[in-house]
């Protein structure tokens, strides 16, 4: 077995500031670092064409790191409809007090997200961030 360690999960953003606000102000993630890259090696690693520019913001919550990526020269490509039986990563799951779920549901649109109403169980719900990434919000207590 090859020894590995978890570093971060990366997400492409169509509006870096809007997505950052969603995670920081609504979900309580903490800003840790911002940096830019216009290196050819980074473009190659990310399978992007040259010329290349990348803006990065790193956010953290409970030891988990989320990298928000903005490609100002390339822009973004629209995502796809969310279904849980698609191959690959499906959603990010966050826990919270069950009593706070109605407040979260009410605030999601204000922060550019969307509540997936058909998933609302009262004590758990799925929401989309401003870029369409799905978050499973599971209540406890």
Features of the shown structure:
141 residues; globular; 4-stranded mixed beta sheet; alpha/beta
How would you sum up this structure, described in words?
- The protein has helices at residues 16-26, 40-45, 101-107; strands spanning 9-12, 30-37, 54-61, 64-70, 92-97, 114-115, 124-128, 134-140.
- It is an alpha/beta fold and 141 residues long.
- The longest helix is centred in the first third of the chain and has 11 residues, at 16-26.
- The termini are far apart.
Which percent bin holds the helix content? Answer: 10-25%
C-alpha geometry:
globular
Determine the strand fraction and express it as a percent band: 25-35%
Low confidence ranges: none
SSE arrangement:
Elements: E1 9-12, H1 16-26, E2 30-37, H2 40-45, E3 54-61, E4 64-70, E5 92-97, H3 101-107, E6 114-115, E7 124-128, E8 134-140
Parallel strand pairs: 1-4, 5-8
Antiparallel strand pairs: 2-3, 3-4, 6-7, 7-8
Short description:
The chain is built from 3 helices and 8 strands; from the N terminus they run βαβαβββαβββ. By secondary structure, the protein is α/β, with parallel strands linked by helices.
